[in-house]
Amino acid sequence: MRANCQCQSRRQFLGQGLGLGLALLLPSLGDASQFTATEGSIWIDGRKAQQKMSVNANSRIKTGANGKAQFVIGDNAFLLAANSEVRFNPIRKRSTTISGLRLLTGGLLSVFGTGNKKLLTPTATIGIRGTGVYMMAEADSSYICLCYGKVDLAANHSPALNYPLSAEHHLGKLVGSDGSVVETGMQGHTDEELVMLEALVGRKVPF
After folding, report:
1. Centroid of chain to Cα 97
2. Fewer Cβ neighbours under 10 Å: the N or C end of the chain?
3. 155-158 own/partner pairs: CB under 8 Å, 24+ apart
4. InterPro entries of this UniProt entry (predicted)?
């Protein structure tokens, strides 16, 4: 029931954002990375986010209790939930291309273009290449959903033990701080959100 409430809240946010003109700056595929919609309190690298503020490949983005952020970095698109914090890593210094990210807390839905990337949470490491992933990070566990594509999943407690995963339409795993990896159902995100994010970077979902 809790997951359903989260999904409904996100659908309302996206619909209201478009309907009320909350979009800040919708980039073209070759444009600089930008927010495309925001709600509530958001900080970039410790500074309160302002209209048309850029998001960089090494940005650290945080949302407050009432904050949500939808943004694009290169050919990757993201939806950051309330009470969440993510830090991006550039492929090299001053590059506009990300090599990966670290979700420190909260929830993040991501769709990625081609190229290898590493995603980190407090309990899990995910190696990807062009896929859709939802992550929800807490101190003692991480929920990871492979929405479609292929990933290599490892618990940070047991990094040598690798789990190659593939999915056409959602495969959820709960990764504990003790190294446990158990299958679980889809939660915290929707197909509509994936469709929206892929559209921001000129792609369609594969399902």
Report:
1. 16
2. N
3. 155/123, 155/124, 155/125, 155/179, 155/180, 155/181, 156/120, 156/122, 156/123, 156/124, 156/125, 157/123
4. FecR, TAT_signal
Cα-Cα-Cα-Cα dihedral sign, residues 12, 16, 17, 19: positive
Q: Fold for domain 2-200? A: Jelly Rolls (2.60.120)
CA distance 102 to 119: 6
Q: Which helix (H) or strand (E) holds 191?
A: helix 191-200
When pLDDT is averaged across residues 132-141 and rounded to a whole number, the result is 96
Q: Which of 193, 83, 182, 69 is nearest to 124 (CA)?
A: 182
pLDDT at residue 55 in the model: 87
Q: Any idea which residue has 């590493």 for tokens?
A: 118
Six-digit token string for 6:
């989260």
Give a three-class secondary structure readout of 135-170.
EEECCCEEEEEEEEEEEEEEECCCCCCEEEEEECCC
